[in-house]
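Recall the central idea of this unit: under ordinary conditions, the amino acid sequence of a chain determines the structure it adopts. In this exercise we apply that idea directly, starting from the sequence alone.
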Amino acid sequence: MYIYVKRIIDFILSLIALIILSPLFLILALWIKLDSKGPVFFRQKRIGKNRTFFQIYKFRTMLTEASDDRPTHLLEDPEAIITKPGRFLRKMSLDELPQLINILKGEMAVIGPRPALWNQEDLADERDKYGANDVLPGLTGWAQINGRDVLSIKVKAQLDGEYIQMMSFWFDLGCFFGTFLSILKSDGVVEGGTGTLKKNKNITKL
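Accordingly, the structure predicted from this sequence is:
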């Protein structure tokens, strides 16, 4: 039952957020456009619900000649390809804001497993073990506030599985506010290299 209520809540929240944040969208768009050549937004093929593909929207944070099909933690020389505004946007997760459009379209939810890249079949296969591919991917989620980029594929899938088991309005609310705390602390943000798993009291539950 909650899954249907969740979709209604997601639609309303994303619509309100897009309206309220429209001035911020304009400011960020101008900053990106004035800093480097290329489009303000970029689209990327991702794995959605039931392992179907969709195009995710983001603010462009890299130079146009950079590859866009690598996970963040696998960037070989991030300083050379990430733009000045891009560094700030990625640190504060503001590059993800255009995904409010994906939520409005019904391709994503506010809270859920983060959508894997189209070529991250290893992550998708691991998520299948926990039923984490059976729900809409999220703008943020349980794994996002428990390690983000530094999590191994296995741990990330396990956390996504925990989310499926505990999914409820109150759990989503906890993930929502937990996201703001993680952003302020820049928890789990890795630009290049594989990173190491930071100790987090919530992960000890696995």
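The mean pLDDT is 86.
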